[in-house]
Design goal:
Structural class: mainly alpha
Number of strands: 0
Number of helices: 8
Largest sheet: none
Radius of gyration: 19 Å
Order of helices and strands: HHHHHHHH
Length: 210
Amino acid sequence: MYLLCLMVNSNLFSQIALEAFQIHANEYQRPTMATSAASAIGNALFYINCAAFARLLYLVPFIGAALSFFVTCLFMAYYSFEYKWVHLQWSLDQRLRHVERNWAFFLGFGLPAASLTFFLSTLHAGGVFALIYPGYIILATMAALKPIRAPATTATGVRAIHQCRLPNQIPFFWPVAAATFTMAILLKKLGVPNVLAVMSEKKDQLGKIV
């Protein structure tokens, strides 16, 4: 029953994303069947590794739960924005670098969903997520990142407000990406085509953030 719900919800989520794009951008580009199949395999590998990485972090003594919750927030945000990034034709590497460079934004974006599901069982978390995820898809479609304004300066050139600088980029996706690309290479050697090409392709779409 749980797997059946996942399949049905996945189809409904795609339709919601389609409607949101048509309303917001008046266009929607659906990938070819070959690309869709390869992307589906790559996405499956990626999310399996995300779940495994979050679980391994949870086992770290003392700080494991906090680290696992942190990456879960980011994974939730990534999953919500994935339809938008597929529409923009971003490769997996472009998506991961984008989240790492804007980690504070995506941390806050995924925080409510992670808070509602992180401490539940798998079945209960899946049910709650199925209820809130359509709204997240719409929010991700409409979201726009804005540049941070620099603090004001006084006449002497001294900053009026002293701010604590956060890291510009946190490579938290590195273990997941390394494992995913390694598995994609193994699949290519076994005769599964296009997976590595889809994941590695550069389309130079970073300027099309809407």
